Amino acid sequence: MFTLFIMPRFFSKLTCRTLSITIIETKSARLFLNSFLNAYQHPITEYPFMFKILIVDPNDPFRRSLKKVLVSRFPFADIREASDGNDGLEMVQGFNPNLIFLEIHLPSESGLDLARQIKIDHPEIIVVILTSYDLPEYKAAAKQSGVEHLVPKDDWTGEDMIALVHSIMADLDIVVQSPHDQNQPQRYSQ
Length: 190
Prior knowledge:
Distance between the termini: 47 Å
Strand content: 15-25%
Radius of gyration: 20 Å
Structural class: alpha/beta
Number of domains: 2
CATH superfamily of the largest domain: Response regulator
Strand order of the largest sheet: 4-3-5-6-7
CATH class of the largest domain: Alpha Beta
């Protein structure tokens, strides 16, 4: 007897559930199992519905910490990192993220200039500017660059970042559940 567990990685407007199929070992069951597994052998990164996040920040510890926080809550997301604007722009072209966390001060160029360039070529990408200063000038410049959110790094916690990503996903009509709350419907607070 085989038990097959399937954990869907991401569904738009559907909740994630674990599906358990018990198959009694017979010749026809083995054929079914082989054809079923062959249908799902593509690497998960090739699926068009994978939620993709890019973090562009020169501060390695911050970048890794943010990625760790996001991976813990959104294990279905493909999260990649870049340390400067040139690498970030290159990754945008090949990776095509849904969401970008972008530091305002990058070694090669301004994060706002990079955001403007990204929004011209990819207006559908949500850009979150990360900054150490919550200044009105930054807010105005971010808005002119097409940035949707400006986040002061020092004032935000990991839970705040998770709440922001949940809010963005809700705006995109993406319903997500983490492994610890799979049996409960996901609720978003407005």
